[in-house]
Write a structure and sequence with these properties.
heterodimer, A: Protocatechuate 3,4-Dioxygenase, subunit A, B: mainly beta, Protocatechuate 3,4-Dioxygenase, subunit A, 9-stranded mixed beta sheet, 5% helix
Chain lengths: 250, 187
């Protein structure tokens, strides 16, 4: 992308799409994916009904002021008196639509395991230590260029019960609201070169290898903070404008 | 140039450490005039509640206006109206509950009018993408009969989208699978 393309910023009123592109079947993982056992009873078996994109779908919540405006909630290493244990990293990137236009002022929420692979959640029974200085949750809103930045601890991999000797690759959960109900996305960010990739059904539920690559962050030596933190970059693309303003239901 | 989207992944079982917040289920403040509760349970294909489910809703206010900042649908002037709710619990039992106001009618495709409805996203461990459904209201038979989206749903399945009036609000269950499978939409 050139510099001038990067500088195209939405005028939120005049440039917010009135319809969003219909995505191909392989854009996202299937709801029924045998290797990920929990999908078996949790996917619809009836065909989806086509929903025209009406005003309800092209509008959406803007929680930035309520949820994202608190200074410092993008730093998961300073939420307690002490420093969490683990490899300190920054995770930053930009949120775009599929036309490459940055989404500014949009809420980015993250949650993750600690360095030992343990979530601070009542139901996580993996016998690794909780870190008293790490909640694993953060949020921020994107700036005028669609950029977000988190400082955190690199999460550890952890075992789960899907199959014998199943381990999740290290990942950070991301939640994006975009501008419209139609743009809502929840995903996971992975780290480059993880040896667990070939064995993880959730990662591999995305059938297109090129699409899987889009969930993997890039190590960025130029973004590292010397003597402080390594840096990973993760750009996120949400659905962009589609063709027709209103489609007939069929 | 068109860029491909980032693929969806499951919210997993532990979203409650970051996603829900105290005011999340409140589309309007609890003491708002006309506030109602919409409750229900998310069930899986075995008929068991889905304890690690996360619900999000988006809707117009009673005048058919949205809390959207981008100029679409008219701007809601209802005090404290957020239009959005999120419900998820760390120690969930599959039940959800939001506090809202009944939405008004909004324009539909062409010259049509849509019956009062709420858009819903369902997330859970075991769901690699959200499922999108809608809540309509069983006590709006005339508006529902004229709704273009309901009209496109097979008649025998429409009732899965209808919230039934109860004291103080409405109740609607969401069945991800099974005999009473909820109608889900391709958006």
């Amino acid at each position: 992308m050139t510099k001038s393309e990067q500088r195209q910023i939405y005028d939120p009123v005049t440039e917010t799409p009135t319809s969003y592109v219909r995505e191909g079947e392989d854009a996202h993982p299937p709801m029924d994916f045998e290797a990920y056992k929990s999908t078996a009873l949790r996917h619809p078996k009836q065909p989806l009904v086509y929903l025209p994109q009406t005003v309800t779908e092209i509008t959406g919540p803007q929680l930035g002021a309520e949820r994202g405006a608190v200074e410092g909630e993008n730093d998961l290493t300073t939420q307690y008196d002490g420093m969490p244990i683990g490899e300190r990293i920054t995770v930053s990137g930009r949120v775009f639509d599929t036309e490459g236009k940055p989404l500014r002022d949009t809420l980015v929420e993250v949650w993750q395991a600690n360095a030992a692979g343990r979530y601070r959640h009542k139901w996580d029974r993996w016998p690794a230590e909780l870190d008293p200085n790490f909640s694993g949750a953060g949020r921020c809103v994107t700036d005028g260029d669609g950029r977000y930045t988190f400082t955190t601890i690199k999460p550890g991999p952890y075992p789960w019960g899907n199959h014998h000797n199943a381990w999740r690759p290290a990942h950070i959960h991301f939640s994006l609201l975009g501008r419209a109900f139609a743009q809502r996305l929840v995903t996971q960010m992975y780290f480059p070169g993880d040896p667990l990739f070939p064995f993880d059904p959730i990662f591999n539920s995305v059938r297109d290898p090129a699409a899987r690559e889009r969930m993997i962050s890039r190590f960025q030596i130029n973004e590292t903070v010397p003597n402080w933190a390594l840096a990973y970059e993760f750009d996120i693309y949400l659905r962009g404008p589609g063709q027709t303003p209103f489609e007939e239901a069929h | 140039m068109i860029f491909p989207t980032t693929p969806s992944q499951t919210v997993g079982p532990y979203f409650a450490i970051g996603m829900p917040w105290d005011a999340g289920p409140l589309v309007v403040p609890e003491d708002s005039p006309g506030a109602i509760r919409i409750t229900g349970t998310v069930y899986d294909g075995a008929g068991s509640p889905v304890p690690d489910s996360l619900i999000e809703t988006w809707q117009a206010d009673p005048d058919g206006c949205f809390a959207d900042l981008h100029g679409y649908g008219g701007q809601s002037r209802l005090p404290g109206f957020r239009g959005f709710a999120r419900y998820g619990a760390e120690d969930g039992d599959g039940r959800f509950e939001i506090v809202t106001v009944k939405p008004g009618s909004v324009p539909g495709p062409g010259m049509s009018t849509q019956a009062p409805h709420i858009d819903v996203s369902v997330f859970a461990r075991g769901m690699l993408n959200r499922c999108v459904t809608r809540i309509y209201f069983a006590d709006e038979p005339d508006a529902n009969a004229a709704d273009p989206v309901l009209a496109s749903v097979p008649a025998q399945r429409r009732k899965t989208l209808l919230a039934e009036p109860v004291d103080g609000g409405y109740v609607i269950d969401i069945h991800l699978q099974g005999r009473s499978e909820t109608v889900f939409f391709a958006l």
